[in-house]
Amino acid sequence: MSPSIPPPPATPEIVLDGTRLTAAELAAIARSRASPRVDPTAWERVAAAHEGLVRARRDGAVYGANTGVGANRGVSIGDASDAVTASAHAKRLLGSHCAAVGPIESDDVARGAMVVRLNQILAGGSGVSSALARGLEDAILADSVPTLHGWGAIGTADLSVLAELALTLTGDRPWAQRGIARVALADSDALPFMSSSALTIATAAIAAADATRLLRASLVVAALTHIALDGAAEAYDAAVHTAVRRPGQAEVAAILARLTSGSRGGAPARLQDPFGLRVVPQVHAPASESLTALIALVEAEANGAAENPLVGPDAVLHHGQFHLAALAAALDSARTSLYPVLTLSSARLGLLLRPEVSGLRPFLSSVDAGSSGLMITEYVVQDVLSTLRTDAAPVSGGSVSISLGLEEHASFATQGARALGRMVAAAPTVVAVEAVAAVRALRNAPERVVGTPVEGAYEQLADALDPEETDRPLGPDIERAVALLGGLADFA
């Protein structure tokens, strides 16, 4: 009898109701690692908001519903009770705002944007019709991925991308993957559906989730380097970090103290370690705190009703809640605080390659005369860091004047989210190079890591990396180390 094949692990189910979606859950759905399910009671809020919008439009001027938008806000579209007139206006509004230009968003980001938009609609302030909202749900459940062109958002609602998504749902634009039957568009649906920063929020959420795991993995790698270099434990002593009121720093120091405990090395090699080992808590803590604050803001935006106008229980309110100044500032903070973590990793790489610090051959090279060992890895890391330096720069200081001067400010949160995404795509190479060097150093003194909390991390890396020290192309080792970083985060 052939052995039975175990069923695949069940995909976690995540409830969408407009109030409790987390950034980690959003990233999991976007990457097809979890399945969404709408809370049935949320549809009541959707229907009530749509009825409120239709009623308000009938009773007076409602921006985008029976008027133009932007500088055309004072232009009436005529009799909104005339279905033909209103429907034509809705289609024109979507068509005119669908720029459909720029790079195509990844499947993960496109899925994430769809999930964010649905969750926001479920919060009950948009006025989007139930038919359009349920069509969006159908597309998500069918894993249909739209073709979304990225350009056209500046941190004051992702109008162009969401117009393209709406026209995809109605069958006027092509699906990139799978697809569903055409969805009926209510004559009041155009602006309410577009009035969201769903793409920006999804981009920020996915990048923040990746950055959080990278940050934890970098602590594990830093601990391996500390052990390989016989670092002094006192830099992570609790007494140091309770002497000033920096709770985030104390938390990082406690993690490092635990990860480096139990090493079988001798006495610390130096009276005082170089900065690369000594100031890890001080450098990592701001990044950790910034990412925590960013995730909190992302979750607030993903679970909020920020549409303009906002359909409330008693009135339709025109406002500026779509302006993402807070998110832009949090994204700037996350990027500018993450960058020093990477430069400190580069500093530790330099320590590992220096014989007077490591006690090993220069560049952790082989015994062959003139061997270069890992010399070229410093060039790789500095190349990556020079690129990331640009992405780390703040974007929220920009200014703008558009729509005939009536919209004279923007947050540029969209650009900040994309920059964070680019950072977390390239940054693992920096940490992975340090990991490759730390493993090569520890292979010369493996007893130091035995019995420590990071012994398993060392073994995972050592099993995957080529033990050969003779000069050779290093790309395969670096790529393997990059692939392992996500798992290393669990050791912290």
UniProtKB/TrEMBL annotation:
It holds the Pfam family Lyase_aromatic. This is Phenylalanine ammonia-lyase. It comes from the Bacteria. One of its GO terms (molecular function) is ammonia-lyase activity. Signal peptide: none annotated. Keywords: Lyase.
